[in-house]
Amino acid sequence: MVEFKDVSVTYSSGVDALNKINLTVNDGDFAFVVGPSGAGKSTLIKLILKEIDATSGEVVVNGFNLRKLRRRKVPALRRTIGVVFQDFRLIPTMTVYDNVAFVLRVIDAPAKYIRSRVPYVINLVGLSHKAKSYPTELSGGEQQRVALARALVNDPKLIIADEPTGNIDPALSYEIVGLLKGINECGTTILMVTHEHDLVRHFGGRIININSGSIAFDEVIGGTNENK
Ligand code: ADP
User: Fold this and answer.
1) Rounded to whole angstroms, what are the CA distances from 190 to 20, 30, 71?
2) So what's the pLDDT on residue 170?
3) Ligand 1 atom at shortest distance from the alpha carbon of 43
4) What domain range includes position 184?
5) Residue 42 C-alpha to ligand 1 middle, in angstroms?
6) pLDDT of residue 204
7) pLDDT at residue 228 is higher than 50
8) 175 and 70, same structural domain?
């Protein structure tokens, strides 16, 4: 769960990036975060990951009160969150399998768990046949699926997808959002930042629209895709 209470962020340059934001994203929700460039979307995400601190107000993420959270506890917070970036951020010298396994190896997960969990999530994103491939041998859509598998492997409560379809073919964008929707149906909370209005209209659901550091609207809309 993500909760913002009267949260403001003023950067040292004097820019007010967020102004008294109030927002609750419950466990199991799926929400699109939209808004023009400079609106404050990245600032919102940086707060959730505790890359920056709020100037005032309170941010609670998955039970962690971020104002009170000590530096050495930040990794524990981040282990409850999976992040997918626009530019994939895969390790080019590692296979698909190792890119995903790496996340568990760095936290010293048991080898037996890694051997069962990694193929499971790679299968979930439909890439079992590419497990031994390297990122450069994959299409953009496939690379983003690997990034999604990597975000999922640690079984996070929340996935933040920051413009995940920004670098991939529009047709494949629907597949990525479809995958995120499927993951959400299994209980993971998802926040997806996007500029793509067509995608949002297609899938519908909760739309949090940020404009000039404030929430312009926060509503649930019906999708044009009847089946979703
Ligand atoms: P978005 O992600 O919606 O494009 P941002 O959260 O990146 O918006 O930016 C919100 C506002 O804060 C913008 O005016 C931006 O220029 C400013 N801003 C973002 N990061 C910084 C920073 N590190 N220092 C100063 N100003 C920043």
Assistant:
1) 23, 5, 25
2) 85
3) 6
4) 1-80+157-228
5) 7
6) 93
7) no
8) yes
